[in-house]
Amino acid sequence: MIERLRNNEFLFFAFRNKRLRVGLFIVLFFLALTLVGPLLAKYDPSEYAAYGSHPPSAEYWFGTTTFGQDVFSQFVLGLRATFLVGMIGGGLGTLIGVVVGFTAGYNGGIIDEVLNILTNIVLVIPTLAILLIIAAYLNVRGIVAESIFIGCTAWPWAARAIRAQTFSLRTREFVDLSKLSGMKSGKIIFTEIAPNMMSYLVMTFILQFGGAILNAATLDFIGLGPTSTISLGLMMQYSVLWGALQLGQWWWFMPPGIAITAIVGAMYIMNVGLDEVFNPKLREM
Amino acid sequence: MSLSVQNLTVVYQTLHGDVRALEKASFSLKDGEIMGLAGESGCGKTTLGNSLILLAPPMRFVDGRVLLDNEELPIWDTDRMDPFRFKKISVIPQYAMNAMNPTRKIGQMTREILQARKIDPGHMMTEIKRRLDLVELPHKVLDMYPIELSGGMKQRMVMVLSTLLNPSLLIADEITSALDVSTQKAVAEMLVEFRRREFVKSMIVITHDMSILYQIADSIMIMYAGQLAEKASTEVIIHDPRHPYTKLLISSLPKVGVKVAEKRLTGIPGTPPMLLDPPIGCRFRDRCPVAFDKCTEVPPFIEVSEGHYVACWKES
Amino acid sequence: MLKLDGISKIYRVGTFGSKELRAVNNVSFDVHPGEVISLIGESGSGKSTIGKMILRLIAITSGKIFFGDQDITALKKSELKSYYRLVQGVFQDPFCSLNPIFKADRAFNIIHEEFYPDVKPKEWKGRVEKSLTDVGLNPPHVLGKFPHQLSGGQLQRFLIARALLLDIKFLVADEIISMLDASTRIDVLNLLADLKSRGLSILFITHDLSLGYYISERAVILYRGCVLEMGTTDKIFSNPLHPYTKMLMASVPRLDEKWGDVKVELRAKTQDYSTGCVFYDRCPVAEPACMSQPTLVEVESDHSVACIHFAGNFNSSG
Known about the structure:
Number of helices of chain B: 9
Number of domains of chain B: 1
Structural class of chain C: alpha/beta
Shape of chain B: globular
CATH class of one domain in chain C: Alpha Beta
Distance between the termini of chain C: 44 Å
CATH architecture of chain B: 3-Layer(aba) Sandwich
CATH architecture of one domain in chain C: 3-Layer(aba) Sandwich
Oligomer: heterotrimer
CATH superfamily of one domain in chain C: P-loop containing nucleotide triphosphate hydrolases
Radius of gyration of chain B: 20 Å
Largest sheet of chain C: 8 strands, mixed
CATH class of chain B: Alpha Beta
Strand content of chain C: 15-25%
Order of helices and strands of chain B: EEEHEEHEHHHEHEHEEHHEE
Strand content of chain B: 15-25%
């Protein structure tokens, strides 16, 4: 169990930090919406609830699409999909990045070289092209498949950052002392180095989370997203496809657009805030 | 030049309260005097040095007066201090040699510093080159990046820059700590040479290394936990100190020619007090072998003999 | 007890590793049981590198190190643990030596887990307390605290106590007091002297000559990876032979006498490794013959020098 020293000081700065508060609030708000929203949604997202498109009203809170589907119902379910992608895609990306980064950074030498080559290759692969190929062969694509794909292509950034940080930490004297205590490499990485990088690791996850959401939205928008469920990106794709922009149906594309921007933006703001919290030198006294 | 510091009190603002880092410091410096400021870590010597030239947050000015050449230094106001810095009072901060911008060539950095002070670099160039010769740096160092220089070379470069406008007072903060023994000697001797050539009038040399001070300083002032303990000429401090702390400190220093088998040196048991809530009275009280009840009152820093100041009830 | 035989550490630098950097160049010396030997050198002399090679924290490029009869250069990673029961190290910065986010006691717990898993907690506690009192610390004062709550001096003694828990025979002390205050330095030094009298061998790495003289019987003077002078501290300090040692002695600021007028050569940082004596470019008595690498020659018993002027039947050309 990691004992957080400066317990009170850490939390004090965490909650005092405006950026962290604002970012966290926004994210939690949307998270609450995913939990509460579907209970409030009156219709199934693909159900044709009305004839044609209606602007927001008491009956249809976010209005309806061209096909008469309730935008609010689509929205809250889409939000859920978005968060799922963030968790799975971001989580997977972080996991792979962490494993590769730690291994390369701690061991150095030939292992580092090989992992570097691997990282660079994955970094450079044109993900769109690969996705098109996959799309051609898989008939049905779900959220999970999309998340896994995103996770498997987004990790190089995390791996690089973690490798660099591990590199600098492994030359510290307490690592030497652990070696002198007969600890195995794996144990040293997880019990000595990782705890000292907690802020880095948390921030890496946040960035991966936000990045995954953006990635998914882009993929959905160009039609390479899941075919079986609704997501915010898909909403935006359909709205543009069916001329919502020209027809002035702002209630169809604005909610998903604002939601994505708000969530990802909030995550990045939290990131900046966390940096101040973890790094005492950036704090303003 | 003359420096007079009266009752200078400076604190550090922290989350947990004010750290009383410097408490009612009063002393003076004569023209041409090289004073060593010594003490252990946390005694307040860097605070004293910094407060004379750059009193910025988290430091906060509480009380006191500083008179340089009979002119009051507005140390509590960083903007009003600006005309004095570099021209009348200059500093070589700790780790100065690592503070040089790694992407700037030395010459360019010099030009920028001079321009910031509204001085034409062209006029100073001959003088700069003369001084580089004095510190045995080749002129081509102006075309090099900091990373190409050794620690000693960087330190000497910073010394040249800090004294370029012939300040009255130079504050040198731990300038020999990170250097090799051979470079230390050269750098320390250069300080003395600067004074001989009147590039600088007086100096405060801050260090924890008493032996360097023995070599180059005229007088030494010892600090402990934010209070002044003793000030006297170098010979007196080293060979005939009066304050209990000074006595214990001097006797704990290994000298070449002393072996552990022959003579065991002893340290000072205990640790310095926390300055967040310092003990009242003399702060050395808890570790002092001759403390008595009067020590709960702060002993005044008074002259017990010619040029010899001590803050100790037993000695006054 | 410990014998270094022709130890070298070569780093590859420059583009594509074309150039060599000899951090340690063919160093040989030995440490006898119950002896303190000082490794004296300035920055760049390779003294810390040697310490780390002895502790097998850095790979050894060439040469051998013998601990007792065992060639430890040949030990595989899995065999190192038994070596560490006998040899440990303490480093310069006590605050960096312990993981700042854990309590300091964790260092002891790790030793318990890794080396003595069968010892019951109560008995272990007793051993820890004995170790702490042996180094002059009061157990209730230092147990259960974070590193930043203890002073530098306390932490260094804490780390020595950790090494003592293992019943070691050899300690590598790498500049262990340079970061401590003057008043605590001497206490840690005296502790080392006590441990020595109880049979521990110590390699005391330092740049400070007076400390080396205070604590050790023998000294090795290093410069840029090479041994320049070696012998008993008495003989070296009363009769320094190598020009570098003489310069070092003259430059050390002392409390009992002022600096003389010895001129000190300062050099530029970048210097290619060249064959021949490493001190050539700063030596006041350099000769053309110095371009061939001098070997360590015994000038009197227990006092050797690596300088062409002392090499047997060398005749000065002047």
